[in-house]
Amino acid sequence: MQEIHNLMGGFAVALSWFNLMLMFAGIVLGVIIGVLPGLGGANGVAILLPLTFSMAQQPGGATSAIILLSCIYWGALFGGAITSILFNIPGEPWSVATTFDGYPLGQKGRAGAALTAAFTSSFVGALVGVLLITFLSPIVARFALQFGPPEFFSVYLLTFCAFVGMSKGSPFKTIASMMLGFALAAVGIDTVTGQLRMTFGFEVLLKGFDFLIAVIGLFGIGEILLTIEEGLEFKGASAKLNMRVVIETWKELPRYWKTSIRSSAVGCLMGIVPGGATPASFMSYGLAKKMSRDGEKFGTGMVEGVVAPETAAHAAGTSALLPMITLGVPGSPTAAVLLGGLLIWGLQPGPLLFVEKPDFVWGLIASMYLGNIMGLIVVLTCVPLFAAILRVPFSIIAPVILVICAIGAYTVHSSMFDVWLMLLFGVMGYVFKKLDYPLAPLVLALVLGDRAEDSFRQSMLMSQGDMRIFYANTLVGSITTLSLLLLFWPLISTAIDFARAKMKRA
Amino acid sequence: MEEEQQGRAIGSVRVWEIVVAALFFIFAAVVVWDSRRLGAQWGSDGPQAGYFPFYIGVFILVSSGVNLLAAIVSGPAGRAPFVYWGQLKMILIVMLPSFIYVALIANPWFGLGIYVASAIFIALFMVYLGKYGWATTAAVSIGTMFVFFLMFEIWFRVPLPKGPLETLFGFN
Predict the structure, then answer these.
(1) Domain stops at, among B79, B97, B131
(2) Strand, helix or coil at A61?
(3) What's the pLDDT tens digit per position in A122-148?
(4) Which residues of A touch B1 (CB under 8 A)?
(5) Which of B56, B79, B102 lies at the terminal end of a domain, its last residue?
(6) Is the same domain home to B71 and B93?
(7) Which sequence spans correspond to the domains of chain A?
(8) Domain that holds residue B150
(9) Contacts of A205 (CB under 8 A, 6+ apart)
(10) Are residues B109 and B52 in the same domain?
(11) CB contact residues (below 8 A), chain A span 366-405, against chain B
């Protein structure tokens, strides 16, 4: 059991007082971020990333930095449930499905039970995700060590095709938004030839568009604008959580073991394949509704209806880090921001990370266990405190969040131009959201653009421009085929539906 | 929300779909044009600088073309209002001061620095939207920025833009 041994080494790294303190700080900050409208996992981590620059310079500092940032992510995952249940406001997109049964439960005076169920099942989902990472990621990384440029490009292709295939809305909007990300990533100095691309003589464009600015603007400012448009009025159930309610709910939870297992499986799958936590939570809610004995009563306040989406969202959010650390391909926008962090700290994400920086990788994995245990304790004990944040009037919260976004955008490169860009991205995020252009593919393309282009160019150099290199062996061929299948999935599924309808009529 | 409360609609979803798709189209045309300028073909030593972006541009051209057509032929869904005047007003109330705020932080003529500009920004929101008294407003806005100052300049040592006030106290 090499993994267990490595994991113990990881615990030795993560269990220092300094790292434990960072974990605690990260969780608390993360829950606050998750509760606040306009701040979420992705842009919360993006805003705080610059604060880790100097920390990461110290020996072992990169591990501490990733522990801090990943714990913010866990905290945000936990925090999203609080506002969904108490205020019917999903703090995070993946907690929308939690409102379906969580809010009715709160209205019935069972907010405590709903919160306990949400936090506990989040924890279970995360635990399954971390176990998966612990035992699967070394295997994936070892396997990926043999990858060359064509294989890496095909994995990128798979990531992006999955977005098209899994998107609920128009696939052409997904493609447009994704390609916009690639185009913006190409702006600036071309790393291979040194030529300037799409700068049109503007000096500020030389260094290109930083995805952190895009994340802060699109998700932060854009989200605030959408919230403002709704007209903010917080009317919430009171948040009381005493030990008796917690224990009673825990006694009830084992009844839903089937839902838990199913939701964890759905979550892990959707997290690894870049579908993300949000569709996973919806899918798992839908499945639970279909398969549960109390299916018809879903939506009126069933504990099981909280268990399903929360387990899946947390499992997906956690396992989204698996492709990030093993292949350098993030499964979600937040994982993309963490990947950006690794690059800034001078670490090369990908299979070599396991060989060259084992204490970093295993320290991170160990911190996932500790961070989630700590997160569960923090949220169970401090719910009233966090809920109180939403009672701060909007006229104070909105400008403070805007100020935090501006500071976050500035600190990335110490550049005022970035703050202006952030505002523009904010307006863009608002319009895109209203017209159903997905934002996640844009951000992922912006992060991976250069790497995808490099692997494409290297592949083309290897084959002298022959596209058949993406079918040169079984491995790359099957990934490419899978990608194309996913890309054309909207068409294929329409064709299947059409054929089925015809069969029925005949 | 009721329509009377929110005022009239500013453009239908269809109109805005068309505008956004057209902007995508123009952007893509620029990408394609610039990639052609750099050379989007196979050079003597491999793909040229515009090789990859050229195809990206083509992809955007095609997909935004489809989006444009889909918007034009969109049925009842396209006639839905994009945003009501009441909503837009709220957004402008937030966005316009934000632009002024960013301009005040640093500009070639007279920058206030991020701390002072932010304190004023928060204070204005509290007075105009929150109807707070001056004492509460001053306490919250100055207090928040003081904590941020300690956090960024002293603890994390991440320098932010500063103005005349900070210089007065000896920080640069």
Answers:
(1) B79
(2) helix
(3) 899 999 999 999 888 888 888 888 888
(4) 231
(5) B79
(6) no
(7) 2-198+212-228+245-505
(8) 85-168
(9) A187, A188, A198, A199
(10) no
(11) 393-396, 398-400, 402-403
Instruction: Tell me the Ramachandran region of residue A200: left when phi exceeds 0, alpha when psi lies from -120 to 50, beta otherwise.
Output: left
Say what the pTM is.
0.85
Structure confidence by residue, pLDDT tens digits, B73-116: 887 877 888 888 888 888 898 899 999 999 988 887 778 889 99
A424–B contact, CB cutoff 8 A: no
| Co-location of B57 and B104 in the same domain | no
Q: How many domains does chain B have?
A: 2
Q: What share of chain A is helix, strand, coil (3-state, %, to 5)?
A: 80, 0, 20
- Cα separation of A457 and A192, whole Å? 9
Give me the interface pTM, i.e. the ipTM: 0.91
Residue A196 is given by DSSP the state E
Q: Of B137, B116, B119, B118, nearest to B127 (Cα)?
A: B137
Rg (CA), chain A: 22
Q: How far is CA B76 from the centre of its chain?
A: 30
Who contacts A195 (Cβ-Cβ below 8 Å, separation ≥6)? Answer: A189, B38, B49
Task: Give the number of C-alpha atoms closer than 13 A to the C-alpha of residue B61, restricted to the C-beta side.
Answer: 12
Helix B51-72 and helix B13-38, axial crossing angle in degrees, nearest 10: 160
Query: Distance (Å, rounded) from C-alpha A293 to C-alpha A286?
Result: 13
Residues present in chain B in total = 172
Q: Pick the residue with more confidence: A481 or A252? A: A481
Chain B CB within 8 Å of residue A189 CB: no
Tokens 């002298």 -> residue: A464
Tokens of B26: 């123009």
**Closest in B38, B122, B148 to A399, CB measured:** B122
